[in-house]
Specification:
alpha+beta; D-amino Acid Aminotransferase, Chain A, domain 1; globular; single chain; four-stranded antiparallel β-sheet
Length: about 325
Amino acid sequence: MKRIRHYLSRLVTLDVKNMRAVAGAVAKESRKPLPLIVLDMIWCSIVYQAGYLDYQEFEFWSLSARERRTWITSGNANSIVVKYNQREYREWFWDKPRFNERFREYLGREWLDVRESTDAELAAFLDRNPLIMAKRIDGMSGAGIEKHSSASITDVPAFRAQLLANTQYLVETFLTQHPVMASLSPTSVNSLRMITFFDGTDVHVMEAVLRMGNGADVDNYGRGGMYTVIDEKTGIAHYGAFDKYANTFDVHPISGTSIVGFQVPLYEQVLATLDTVSRIVPQIPYVGWDVAIGEHGPVIIEGNYNTGVFQMKPSLTGNKIGLLPKFRAVIDF
């Protein structure tokens, strides 16, 4: 029944126009008739709990039924969230100021909740921080995140009113990232999405993903960024990255930095930090952590209790087997 309710809730909010556009792009790429692609998308949504974006991103059109059963989809990920992440504790993660308070020791940056601050406190914050990021407290996929130069803000009360009107209640210091990470895309903080599961004894790294911007202020996939899955033990990227338009890159198109073979710096410290923070709220054992590499070590950007899934396109790896068997070996869902 939970699976049926989840399917119906997604059906109610389905963006038909976007689905049609995605289906058209897939039909063009796969050279298959559009009606056949649409019918197959619907079939995969029922049988494999794969949304139409899963279908495109993971190239389901190129997979056999046996291969499709090995891919973890949005529906699978939701099943883990429903079973393990206790509802009454999820607010610790989606409410960004509350998350920052709970994980303050691991943030590596200053922050301010403009709802709780005065104009004078915000002015002092701007004086201390030449670049800031303004965020919606419940934004997802980079929505509602903006970078501001403090020098350009001449009317602090008006700026605070603007933040409140936009529900951008959280302002943070713009992170100065490790120069190796900045070499990928200097305009954005290039981060890791590290998906962990705490079984009560051990913290398991289920996926390690390297995300990078492509000229924007953020590295989010939905905002023009790209990603590649890295070796979760070593932090090395063995494949190129891709964006939501199915463009693939072995070398970053702006910086010229090689993505294939890229080594995430201070990666052992990343794993040590994850082993610590994943135990702080054991009632939320399944988390997608956004981690930046600062000048002196890893810092936590945020934690996502309902993290999306990330898998490499079969056309990039030559491998048509997904990560579902790996997840099932650790997580009973």
